[in-house]
Write a structure and sequence with these properties.
Strand content: 15-25%
Helix content: 25-40%
CATH superfamily of the largest domain: Dipeptide-binding Protein, Domain 3
Largest sheet: 11 strands, mixed
Distance between the termini: 14 Å
Length: 539
């Protein structure tokens, strides 16, 4: 099996970062260093190994997948985090789904039409059953959408739909209305966060119990959940669509990144998500494992709470941008070859991306000057809440050193996952490290959820920015159905947001996945809504 060398520049990256943190001054305006340029060729995506003609399919009918955190619930009406989205995509069906080209196509809705600017009609399949054997009807669709109207669980996907406009005129017809013309209806309906659940079951057991023992109509059925350890699902033999090759999938919760790598190498797991960039070379060179590296629509950044007492002044936020050597952080924390410089909040893979925004760069003198203008010439203290991990710990230490040079004391507050999520959703933080995956593959929808005033204190908004000028452009974006016109508005929004400095850009990250060398049929799509039905093993 051919192996590929990926991380030759890691040692150089570390040296760059240590120099930057020891008091030396560099000013970066382009966002790209020489080291990044030298290794750009090595940063190309690495696809999964494809089956060869002489390979024989194994009798192995189960797979163990390692993930880096445990979801709070498996109820679709919940925070749309990546690990949850992945499992929900196995258990549930949505009205529409993305095909291999990320185009919305039929799923539970076998056909649909837009009746007018704000009205959509969906004709449902008649052969769908939930895992408990009950048939799926439009009443379940109606129930699933209505229960989102008063959701407090961080699921805001239906915010642009009119809960008073939902109708189920017969068992297999569903009518959806939007509050205004909305450009992203079809893409939104592909999200697992809008999966269809059985009304009778949810009403019987309640939301909390349903989230721990879910019933869907998807290609896999829920089996068990051992808190802090694993979630097990099995093939749904009565599924209306294509059947899974494997019978059982176990999702193991392994929070320590090095443990995921070790377990993969030892054969204890078959697929490891969220491999640290420092282990990529190791996985690629091991004959028993394969590295899967692909560019998605994910960025990494420091979110600055614009409502925080110490950060509400834009000059302070700009100062922290100038005080941060983002390129060194990118190389050390996310890998020179497994990430790309982040130049805007919109990933380079999406329409409307801008690479021409003038970067803040690393300029200690400029940072000090802005802090003095804002009244913090004698310094200030900022709290950093984050989930402890090898990457985040390294990031915290680097920021602490860098900001210390301009008189900013960074208080480190590593916080447990559930407590952290609760605090962030309430806006109870100064800064946090965050990443945005654009699951709808639409930049405009992502920007609206991240920066519109109406999205404050939601699971998607970490900057808590409230800027009327930004709001006005975002309001135009969501009603503009022409893709080219929408892209122009996305470009305009990026410039306004950039000036507000709600983020410190760190990196566009690649998904780094490790797998057994015997695994075949896995397609790492950018949405992280993986379809495991095609996965199998060879001898």
């Amino acid at each position: 099996m051919k192996k590929r060398k990926l991380l030759a520049a890691v040692g150089l990256s570390l040296a760059v970062a240590l120099t930057a943190c020891s008091g030396g001054k560099t000013t970066e305006t382009s966002g790209t260093t020489g080291a990044a340029q030298e290794t750009s060729e090595a940063a190309k995506d690495v696809a999964p190994i494809q089956a060869e003609e002489d390979e024989k399919k194994s009798d192995k009918d189960s797979m163990i997948v390692a993930m880096d955190r445990e979801p709070a619930s498996l109820d679709p009406n919940g925070n749309n985090v990546v690990v949850k989205r992945m499992i929900d995509n196995c258990l549930y069906d949505t009205l529409l789904k993305f095909d291999e080209n990320l185009t919305p196509v039929a799923s539970l809705a076998e056909s649909w039409e837009q009746v007018d600017d704000t009205t959509w009609k969906f004709n449902l399949r008649k052969d769908v059953k939930f895992h408990d054997g009950t048939p799926l009807t439009s009443k379940d669709v109606l129930f699933s959408f209505k229960r989102l109207a008063n959701s407090s669980n961080g699921n805001n996907l239906a915010d642009h739909f009119d809960p008073e406009g939902y109708e189920a005129p017969d068992d297999y017809t569903f009518i959806l209305k939007t509050t205004t013309p909305y450009a992203f209806v079809e893409a939104t309906l592909c999200s697992p966060g809008l999966a269809i659940v059985p009304e009778a079951e949810v009403e019987k057991v309640g939301d909390d119990a349903f989230g721990r023992n879910p019933v869907g109509s998807g290609p896999y059925k829920f089996v068990s959940w051992t808190a802090g350890d694993s979630i097990v699902i099995e093939k749904n033999e009565d599924y209306w669509g294509d059947q899974s090759i494997l019978n059982t999938i176990t999702f193991r919760i392994i929070t320590e990144s090095s443990s995921r790598t070790i377990d993969l190498e030892s054969g204890g797991i078959d697929l490891a998500l969220s491999i640290p960039n420092t282990d990529a070379d190791r996985i690629a060179e091991n004959a028993d494992t394969q590295l899967i590296l692909h560019t998605g629509a994910t960025d990494r950044y420091i979110a600055l709470n614009c409502q925080s007492d110490v950060l509400k002044d834009v000059r302070v936020r700009q100062a922290l941008n100038y005080a941060t050597d983002s390129e060194s952080i990118r190389q050390v924390c996310y890998g020179a070859d497994t990430s790309e410089p982040m130049l805007s909040v919109v990933p380079s893979t999406l329409q409307g991306y801008r690479s021409d925004l003038e970067q803040y760069g690393y300029d200690i003198d400029k940072a000090k000057s802005l802090l003095e203008e804002a009244g913090y010439g004698d310094g200030l203290t900022v709290e950093f809440k984050y989930l402890a991990s090898s990457t985040n710990n390294m990031l915290a230490e680097l920021l602490q050193q860098m900001w210390g040079q301009v008189g900013v004391t960074l208080e480190l507050n590593p916080t447990e996952s559930g407590t952290l999520t609760s605090a962030l959703n309430k806006g109870d933080f100064d800064i946090c490290c965050a990443g945005t995956n654009f699951p709808l593959m639409e930049a405009g929808a992502g920007l609206y959820d991240m920066f519109h005033t109406s999205s404050m204190y939601s699971g998607n908004d970490r900057s808590e920015l409230s800027d009327p000028e930004v709001d006005a452009v975002l309001d135009q974006i969501i009603v503009t159905t022409d893709a080219d016109e929408r892209a122009k508005l996305v470009e305009q929004a990026q410039e306004l947001i950039h000036a507000d400095a709600p983020f410190i850009y760190l990196a566009y990250t690649k998904s780094i996945i490790g797998a057994s060398s015997k695994l075949r049929g896995f397609d790492p799509i950018p949405t992280s809504m993986y379809d495991f039905r095609t996965v199998y093993f060879v001898e």
